[in-house]
Amino acid sequence: MPSRQRIEFPNPQGEQLAAVLELPDIKPKAYALFAHCFTCGKDIAAASRISRTLAASGFAVLRFDFTGLGGSEGDFGNSNFSSNIQDLLAAADFLRRRHNAPQLLIGHSLGGTAVLAAAAQIEASKAVVTIGAPASPQHVVQQFSDQVAEIESEGDARVMLAGREFRISRQFLTDVQQHPLTESLAELKKSLLVFHAPFDDTVPIEQATQIFAAAKHPKSFVSLHGADHLLSSLQDAQYVANTIAAWAERYIEDESALEKVAVRGGEVFVGEGNLKFLRDVFSDDHAWLADEPKRVGGDNLGPDPYEHLLAALGTCTSMTMRMYANRKQWPVENITVRLRHERVHAEDCADCESKPAQVDVLHREIKFEGALDADQRARLMSIADRCPVHRTLEGRIRIETKGADEL
Questions:
Q1: What span, in angstroms and rounded, lies between the C-alpha atoms of 49 and 235?
Q2: Which of 198, 213, 309, 328 is 20 to 30 A from 236 (CA-CA)?
Q3: Cα–Cα distance between 216 and 185 in angstroms, integer?
Q4: What is the pLDDT of residues 228-238, one digit of tens each?
Q5: Using alpha carbons only, what angle is made at residue 189 by residues 187 and 195, rounded to the nearest 5 degrees?
Q6: Sign of dihedral through CA atoms 37, 23, 1, 27?
Q7: Taking a C-beta distance cutoff of 8 angstroms, is the pair 44, 37 a contact?
Q8: Spatial separation of the C-alpha atoms in residues 27 and 100, rounded to whole Å
Q9: Which has the closest alpha carbon to 313: 230, 216, 393, 399?
Q10: Is 75 helix (H, G, I), strand (E, B) or coil?
Q11: Domains of the chain, first to last
């Protein structure tokens, strides 16, 4: 199951911004950054539903509260569109330093306008998604247009937005006029996906038309028929998330894929697949996964370490028997090996007084089919004990460990 981490990171003023990082149960395909709507917060239904659904699709998603909102420090009355952009850049830098830089930027309403403005400064970003976004930050002023004169004359005013009171200052009005976004959309140089509801009564669909017309390809438009501005319907939010996941895979670099690591012949390299038990395993020509079962906290995405050990013995046993049977031209039609591991009480142990009286036992059951006589079967069973891995496990093994900087 996807997991959730509550974190904080500083904005350029040193104020702590509250955030949630939604993580998939496997190594993320890519990291995404989600910007919420004007005066909303990271925990609004649309933001949390979209983030969780994307995490279930393999994306890691960071959503956070802009300055002065939700759990973030600072005074919202002193914030503006420029500070929103700075908050986004701080969030992207946090992901870059702690995890991987975001390839996917998602913004809802004014958050969508903010990610369009910030995208050029987030070099790693390859794809941008807007949901019900205005083409210019100035559009948000229409939500309190009847109080603009008061704000201009008094310096600030208390306005009601989405049922809550906020202080809007004159500097906010001045700042939004300094971001003519449509002029820079032609230079976006990112893949763009625009979502908008035809009957959005907060941001008219004509705003989405302006964004789409100003941007260059690759670009896509999805009409959210029947949805409201806040995507309050669970089905609408999940539809948006599923569409984003499918669309983004065409443009991002999948960071979850096992990248080939240079390994010399005869060596094995093990790297971390996630911060739990998932591990990436490489030999000179192959790559695979190791993990632990879910009952002990893993994700069960690969064999556990003891299953690898059993597989080594089982495959070596089968290969050795087949090689011998082929050389003798015996009619062996099929060879199967079934193995299991257990620890049992040691009845005869020379060091039982100083060591735990338990020994590891590898049980091996071999079956072969074919018209073999009793002597041939007995001979093949004896050959099983001569496989190289069997001899290694029953011989004296010494493990030498060094730090990589000592090699």
A1: 10
A2: 213
A3: 8
A4: 999 999 999 99
A5: 95
A6: positive
A7: yes
A8: 11
A9: 393
A10: coil
A11: 3-248 (3.40.50.1820), 258-296 (no CATH), 303-406 (3.30.300.20)
pLDDT in tens, 330-346: 999 999 999 999 988 76
Alpha-carbon distance of 147 to 226, in angstroms, equals: 31
Neighbours of 148 (CB within 10 A): 16
Burial 14-43 (b: 16+ CB within 10 A, else e): ebebbbbbbbbbbbbbbbbbbbbbbbbbbe
Flag whether pLDDT at 217 surpasses 90. Answer: yes
Measured CA to CA in angstroms, residue 260 lies from 27, 232, 291 at distances of: 16, 43, 19
- Residue 151: exposure state from Cβ atoms within 10 A (0-12, 13-18, ≥19): buried
- Residue 279: DSSP 8-state: E
342 half-sphere exposure, CB direction, 13 A CA radius: 7
Q: Enter the tokens of residue 151.
A: 């704000």
Q: Are 251 and 126 in contact (CB under 8 A)?
A: yes
The whole-model pTM stands at 0.68
CB atoms closer than 10 angstroms to residue 341: 13
